[in-house]
Amino acid sequence: MKKILITGGAGFIGSHVVRFFVNQYPEYEIFNLDKLTYAGNLENLKDIQKRSNYHFIKADIVDEKAILELFKKNKFDGVIHLAAESHVDRSISNPTEFIYTNIVGTVNLLNAFRNIWKDDFSQKRFYHISTDEVYGSLGEEGVFLETTPYDPRSPYSASKASSDHLVRAYYHTFGMPVVLSNCSNNYGPFQFPEKLIPLAINNIKHGRSIPIYGKGENIRDWLFVLDHARAIDLIFHKGKLGETYNIGGNNEWKNIDLIHLLCDIMDRKLGQSEGTSRQLITFVKDRAGHDLRYAIDSSKLQKELGWKPSLNFETGLEKTVDWYLNNQIWLDNVTSGDYQKFYNNQYVKR
Ligand code: NAD
Ligand code: DAU
Questions:
Q1: Is 132 one of the annotated active-site residues of the chain?
Q2: pTM score, whole prediction
Q3: 293 lines ligand 2 (CB under 6 A)
Q4: 40 lines ligand 1 (CB under 6 A)
């Protein structure tokens, strides 16, 4: 029996990873550790919460003592570390939280793992989930490779870059059995509606304006979240220790083109005449330090571990829209309370 700790398992990507592992590996015991911040929601895991190989632990990775106690009690064989503050705009208005969770929290997990295994790591693994944003911003040409020098430009990406460096430092200094991956923008069910795609879906549904930063010319490389979960499964089991794998959709979209496509899908699904949703598009003040373009080269993962994205973007986006339209209660629950405060500060008061 393997005991696997997944951190941040109540968040967007984490909940897909937890579900994937609980279903795929009945012989493993899966522990989901999450602080349940505004972004963590156990409703994301309702369908598997009673499964005998699933356990939930409410804890804060910044709490060094609590984390060490949990590791001593449970002796996890493997860690898949997703817990993080993940929203760039929030890192611009409040960077400190990102330093605690993303950097100190990661070090606490590394230390606790070392402590319980006393640096004897056979059959053990610590998998750190990171982002393509650590590589900085591309111009019109080029792609991010695993060897691209780090050049983070937001408090969020700087905190993730710092945690990546620490994970690699623990591999070189203490021989910790680590593996890392850096992924591009995910989309799909259960994404918190502060991020572009679910925010736009929710606003279109309510006839509210769709805020596009700057001129909408920034480019992101979008990947369906389940394809990320499949990559995480492969890398956790078959990735080489000490290595980093880039994960991406080979699917670059200018924000404005993506929103046009989304508007057209929404018009169809809502039975509205063509062009209705596009009228909601509003260009607003740009994000400070807004990275122009991200594009991932995932050929190492494709060649070495045989992964490739399974969905084209139009199909994935349509599935995503269907999910949000069929899960109004989920959306209403996460957009009540604190969300309103965030939304007013971010979009209304500016
Ligand atoms: P998310 O914000 O939806 O979820 C983060 C989860 O971490 C939440 O459940 C939250 O409650 C939990 N958490 C936050 N602080 C915590 C703490 N101090 N202790 C314990 N739990 C805490 O994030 P996401 O989009 O699912 O991203 C998950 C991971 O993947 C992050 O590490 C992120 O950097 C990385 N990533 C995200 C994307 C993306 O497009 N969303 C792309 C590449 C990498
Ligand atoms: O690249 C991976 C990263 O993708 C992850 O590491 C982050 O956790 C995740 O949040 C995401 O970061 P982005 O900043 O790219 O995602 P976001 O959805 O916030 O924004 C996508 C693009 O859309 C970006 O260019 C900013 C723009 N945008 C965003 C919002 C929320 C708008 O134009 N309007 C908006 O209201």
A1: yes
A2: 0.98
A3: no
A4: yes
Q: Catalytic one among 29, 60, 85, 133? A: 133
Q: Which of 5, 13, 190 to mutate to test the pocket of ligand 1 (most atoms within 8 A of CB)?
A: 13
For residue 162, what is the domain's CATH number?
A: 3.40.50.720
Confidence of residue 283 (pLDDT cuts 50, 70, 90): very high
Counting the structural domains of the chain, the total is 2
Whether residue 41 has its Cβ less than 6 Å from ligand 1: no
Three-state SS annotation for the chain: CEEEEEECCCCHHHHHHHHHHHHHCCCEEEEEEECCCCCCCHHHHHHHCCCCCEEEEECCCCCHHHHHHHHHHHCCCEEEECCCCCCHHHHHHCCHHHHHHHHHHHHHHHHHHHHHHCCCCCCCEEEEEEEHHHHCCECCCCCECCCCCCCCCCHHHHHHHHHHHHHHHHHHHHCCCEEEEEECEEECCCCCCCCHHHHHHHHHHCCCCEEEECCCCCEEEEEEHHHHHHHHHHHHHHCCCCCEEEECCCCEEEHHHHHHHHHHHHHHHHCCCCCCHHHHEEEECCCCCCCCECCECCHHHHHHHCCCCCCCHHHHHHHHHHHHHHCHHHHHHHCCCHHHHHHHHHHHCC
pLDDT tens sequence across 86-109: 999 999 999 999 999 999 999 999
The answer on 167 and 136 residing in a single domain is yes
> Catalytic residue at 133?
yes
245 catalytically annotated: no
Average pLDDT over the chain, rounded to whole? Answer: 97
Q: Which domain holds residue 271?
A: 196-219+252-289+312-346
Cβ of 152 below 6 Å from ligand 1: no
Interval 215-237: pLDDT, tens: 999 999 999 999 999 999 999 99
61 CA distance to ligand 1 centroid (A)? 12
Quick one: which ligand is closest to 8's CA?
1
